[in-house]
Amino acid sequence: MMKPPPLQQRRLSDDIVARIETLILEGSLQPGERLPAERALAEEFGISRPSLREAIQKLAARGLLVSRHGGGTFVSDQLGASFRDPMVELLERNPDAQRDLLEFRHTLEGACAYYAALRATAPDRERLTAAFERVQACYQRQGRISRAEEGRIDAHFHLAIAEASHNAVLLHTIRSLFELLERNVVTNIGGMYTIGSEVRDTLLAQHQALYTAIMEGRAEDARRLASEHLDYVQQVLAEAQDEARRVERAQRRRAPA
């Protein structure tokens, strides 16, 4: 009987590759983020610097890390770059694409809210609370904050929910869409606030209810509230667009002689 071939011992660098891959996948290391200095990273992992260099070379060969001469090692900023310019600009200009994005957000953000309510840890809740407090402060600065900044703060709140979901696919989908999401929020803000100040009050109340449901672990409520929030955004935008079309038609009519 032939003896089976001896098991190959796993290389230490492979263990480090797996650990860094996990950090990237879970979002602890983000696209474009610089890794700690080689010496500090080797000490953190408890390995030699040659083993660390070998791991970094393997990750660079896979396109996950980028080493810059004299500048350190970075997570590739191309990770999750599915929706970057010029696609972002193309989608931003198309009204149907804006509607499509809202419909897509229904599915995505409802699931994020559901799992965040089930899985959020204490650090997740701290980050989510900080993000929500920025949303509150943003609404209090009405008239003293740009639409772009408001859109960025709102989008970061939804990103914090995705991070708390502990679902790598949901998180990286949201991150790959982040620029598009941010611009969508800005566009929505411009379309909704023309109707009246009560819209802002409703939106803040909806964010408050969603935040509270996640913090209290009410998963089904969180999913429902996320969907109701986006339903409201769609409804208000549709009303604003209808009103704009009515005004446009009225302006085209000639006054009687």
Automatic annotation (TrEMBL):
Pfam families: FCD, GntR
Signal peptide extent: none
CDD domains to which the protein is assigned, alphabetical: WHTH_GntR
Keyword Cell cycle included in the entry's annotation: no
InterPro entries reported for this sequence: GntR_C, TF_FadR/GntR_C, Tscrpt_reg_HTH_GntR, WH-like_DNA-bd_sf, WH_DNA-bd_sf
GO MF, one annotated term: DNA binding
UniProt cross-references to PROSITE patterns, sorted A to Z: HTH_GNTR (PS50949)
Keywords noted in UniProt: DNA-binding, Repressor, Transcription, Transcription regulation
SMART domains named among the record's database cross-references: FCD, HTH_GNTR
Function: Transcriptional repressor for the pyruvate dehydrogenase complex genes aceEF and lpd.
PANTHER family: PYRUVATE DEHYDROGENASE COMPLEX REPRESSOR, TRANSCRIPTIONAL REGULATOR, GNTR FAMILY
Descriptive protein name: Pyruvate dehydrogenase complex repressor
Organism, scientific name: Thauera chlorobenzoica
